[in-house]
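Here is one chain, start to finish.
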Amino acid sequence: MKKVISKTTRIVSFFNTSHYWGGQLNGESRKLGVKQRLKQNCESRFYALILHCLSVTLHKNPLFQICLRPDAQRKVNNQSPVAADVIDTVLHERFYWQRLEQLIKTTKFIVDAIGNVESHQSSLADCMLELIRCAKQMSQLQLDPEDDVGFWMHAKNTFNRWFHAINTNYHSLALFLHPMCRKLAITQAANGRSMEFMIKVALEIAKRLKWDSPTATKLVDDMRAYNLSRAPFAGGQANGLIWWEDLPVSAEAHPLKNLAIRMLSIVPHAGDVERLFSDLGSTQSPRRCNLSVQTFETLGKIRANLRRHVHSKDTAMGKETRRRHAHMHTRKEPGINMEVVEDLNENFTWLPPLSALSDDDLAGPETISVDDVDAEFAALERQKVGELLDTGVDGMEVLEGNVYDFDELARVDEGIVPRGVDDEIVEVDYEGDDGGWDIDALMSTRGLACP
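Its structure:
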């Protein structure tokens, strides 16, 4: 794949830097109905590489038409032809186009998932759902006859390993606290998260919040009732945060409501901060470069405040406020994607593991050269050597269905509210004193085995 990316970068660089041949390609593209242009790769944007490859795939026919022209293959009227290596890649490289398609189909859904969670309404539960959706799509990847088997196996092994690294205890708890995903989070898979695990993570958070022992005890009882979909925790909706906020119980009587609102209110990305820096970059420019720190800070605060007022006004008027990346297709409705959840509930078994910019903004001084690609792949090879020494995922392969239940995810996608589930809490004997507000001791007093 290193050679494929290098050759793709070479094609884009040639036509974007050649005034004549770039114009010829654009003209041929318009004749064939291709409206987009070739996109440069840019290391500061996570989705630039996929746009880079997609743009070349989109221009496949125009590239063929240009490279087959006699004046593209040899000098005519003192006009330089297309570079020989570019022609060789486009017309004669046997596996280039097939491997380029394989790279796109293996990685694009991951890039889309990242874009889908970069919104104001995203929560940790959204992150987990997108991650599980990626695991399902990765598990269903088919190896075509001319695909690179080594890359196919490497991609799956890497995803299995990093799924566990990306996921955290708090992500799993947030998924459980979404009313539509409680059954998905507590899976029956051999290495899935247990109810005891969720309770212990919740108690760790409660201890950090300095909740007293009676409140923590109520929290345990609430979580057990919530897991069984018993009153007052029956039902659910796509927007988990709104569901918890509208639940007709007090947070004092049912501390699980307090915890759930805290967990689902966490914005799991720094998109707003990145947009702030982007806005500040347009405030200070080569023409306005002598601002004092105080003035610069004041202008930044004013701009952020105005943006907040515009957002509040749009929300009150019912206008869409979700930001979109050029490569993604977000939904207008807030909350989790019910289609994704239901599909995963039905068809996937999961092990817990593993700024709105236009397309034209990708071109610029940050574009990556072939040498940059070579350097990044060299670093990747060094990283792979260390990773191969310790995979640490035996028995926890998410793509093999050892962590989460894909069938349960499909039910969440369809919007089916979870019913009561079997209570499989393990009873244990406890003879000690629970007066010290110790997590393990408290769980034992409530008849729970500590994971």
